[in-house]
Amino acid sequence: MARYSIGQATVSPDQPDFEQMLQSAYNSKLRPNCLCLGASGVPMYISQINGRFWLKRMPDTGRQHATGCASWEMPEEFSGRSDLYGSGFTYEENEVKLRLNFPLSRRGGQSPPPTAKANAEKPSVQADGKRLTLRSLLHYLWDEAGLTNWPGKNARRNWTFVNESLTIAADQKTVKQDNLQHYLFLPEAWTKEHREEIAGRRRERFARISGTDGKNGHQLLLVIAEVKDIEQAGMGFRTVFYHLPDCPFVMEQKLHERLLRHFGKEMRMWTGKQPGHMILTGTFSVSPEGTPMLEEVCLMFVSEEWIPYDNIYELAIIQKLVAEKRTFLRILRYNRPTAAPMPTFLLTDHGNDPVALYVLDAESSADVAQVEASASASSYAHWMWNPRTHGEILPIPAVLPRTDPATAVAPTRVSAPTTSAIPTRATLSGGFAQPVNQPIPAPQTTAQAETLASASAASIQSRFA
Ligand SMILES: [Zn+2]
Q: What is the structure's pLDDT at 127?
């Protein structure tokens, strides 16, 4: 059980008054410490968002925590995230500055051709630097929201949870001079009872960016939502999202063609009704008559637990680990090409150090020897499954207890980079990770879900008012 020291007290997120204790510590300017590795503690900070209080790790301290601690951050050698540190995002004082390779505004009269951002299959070194693409921004937010970190027991997620987690993750992130939340549009959890208020808040937000292509140009918004339907209609395609039943987005014919070209895999998985959700992120403008028009889009398929996956082999591993109540991290590529060997998951409940899980799929162009060489170059233990030679999942390393926290030390090994794309920085990117107290308890009943959803949505929307 996670424990934190606040002044003389030792507290746990499981206790009912945890948030009240955070609030009084916040008011008394007391800094909490995470006790995952013993009494000395790792400093944390308290953040106030939407009138609520969250305990989060300090920037650049992710690796000081024990493997499996909610504030632990994976070694940088594993994630495509490390490639973007210093170029796609930088830490400054109390905020993270994001640099994007796509526009969030459009000059008056300009109407760029719609583009579906490809899976960022670009060389690792680009002339314009390594900025966040739509895909790597989505990966970054999924990581920061803690959605790639499966906590094992008692974990339940729904759109309300995902929405609030992403909202908290966007806090203290800036794009140019603006808070990312200024651009982010996450559909409120929809209920019939509150449909009028929800539509009202949305109309107000959309009306503020609705433009006539005059000399002031357009501001764009960034939607992240689950796709319900993409159907041919009129001059293009109508994109319907869950929780936005009364507000279809228009996708022009050319954009749809590019979507099929670049995201054929995701579209096939969705058409084939693979278990889970299809997430679309994209920039959009609002036409003078109020129609949201998608400009650039990216797709990502996630499991029922909202964990991203690329194929049925990765899904099989997710389903097995979830059923066995294991704790693990899903590793995302960000801008790294699919040919670069990378583990797919990290087991975080096998003793003190993580175990890298490699799933070799038909799509990966890296051959077995290449992946084996890369995995062996790391100082961390690894496990590999090649479904082409073993249809059945090989035995996964079992749960191992951690050694005594008083004597354990945080992993300090930094092995040789496994690809040339990995910078040689010795420290980890850190960051404002997800808070350790969970955003919203997963509701038990539909009625409770709707009450929570509307309460949460109201608090989130008030930030944009
Ligand atoms: Zn910790």
A: 33
Same domain, 136 and 219: yes
Q: How far is the CA of 356 from the centre of ligand 1 (A)?
A: 20
CA of 224 to the centre of ligand 1 (A): 30
Check whether residue 193 and residue 229 sit in a common domain.
yes
Q: Is the residue at 427 inside a domain?
A: no
Higher-pLDDT residue of 434 and 401 is 401
Do 101 and 179 lie in one domain? The reply is yes
Residue 154 alpha carbon to ligand 1 centre in Å: 20
Cα angle 62, 430, 188; round to 5:
100
Closest CA to 67 of 400, 290, 448: 400
Our measurement of the distance from residue 418's CA atom to the centroid of its chain's CA atoms, rounded to an integer in Å, reads: 24
Band (pLDDT 50/70/90 cuts) for residue 449 is very low
Residues 186 and 44 in one domain: no
Residues with CB under 5 A from ligand 1 (ion): 34, 36, 65, 69, 71
How far apart are the CA of 382 and the centre of ligand 1, in A?
A: 23
Domain span holding position 224: 83-307+434-457
- Return the top range by mean pLDDT from 38-42, 108-112, 136-140: 136-140
Give me ligand 1 centre to Cα 166, in Å.
21
Q: How far is CA 284 from CA 185, 188, 200, 210, in A?
A: 10, 17, 19, 10
| Assigned domain for 107 exists | yes
Number of domains in the chain: 2
pLDDT of 414 above 70: no
